[in-house]
Structures are given as structure tokens and as C-alpha cells.
Amino acid sequence: MKLLQNVINHKINNATTDELLKYAGQYGISLTREQADKIVANVKGKNINIFDDKQRSKVVKDLAKIIGAQPAKELNELFVQLIK
């Protein structure tokens, strides 16, 4: 289980704008390239653990300030799906 968590966290922490846009499209999350750029810039280098509720909540709140509440909510729902 820990290995899978590491893989998921690594993928999130190192996602590119294009990858993020691809995943957003796959999961029905509407993101612009500008929003994806901002998300990548905000997450890069922070080594976020989305399996930790406090860290995930903080990231989502930070992202809501940058990209808006609705896209941030949709990303949180995606994160929750990934950790189940």
C-alpha cells in the first residue's frame, strides 16, 4: 500500500501542465492551460502527501485562491477518488 501511495504522490508532485490537462479531461474537470500552469507552479517542490487529510485540505484551499472554488473542489474530489 505504501508503494502505491508513493507512486501517486510522486505523480501529483511532479505533474506537468500537459499531464494535468490530460487528467482533468479524463475525469471531467474543466481547467484552462493558465489554471493548470498555476496549479503546477503551486504544487511543484512541495512534496505534498494527498493521503494526509491536513496537507490535502491546505493544498485545496491554496488552489481555490488561485483557480477558483469550483475547480479546486473538483480536484479535491479527484484526490479523494485516488486515495480510496
Secondary-structure-derived class: mainly alpha
Q: How much strand content do the residues show?
A: under 5%
The 3D shape can be described as globular
| Count of strand segments | 0
Averaged pLDDT: 90
Would you mind describing this structure in some detail?
The protein has one domain (about 1-84). The longest helix is centred in the C-terminal third of the chain and has 15 residues, at about 55-65. The mean pLDDT is about 90. Helices cover about 75% and strands about 0% of the residues. The protein has 5 helices and no strands. It is globular. The chain is an all-alpha fold and about 80 residues long. It comes from Bacillus seohaeanensis. Pfam families: DUF2624 (PF11116).
Topology, element by element:
Elements: H1 2-13, H2 17-26, H3 33-43, H4 53-67, H5 69-83
Organism: Bacillus seohaeanensis
InterPro entries: DUF2624
Pfam families: DUF2624
Features:
mainly alpha; globular; DUF2624; DUF2624 domain-containing protein; 84 residues
Quick structural gist:
The protein has 84 residues and is mostly helical.
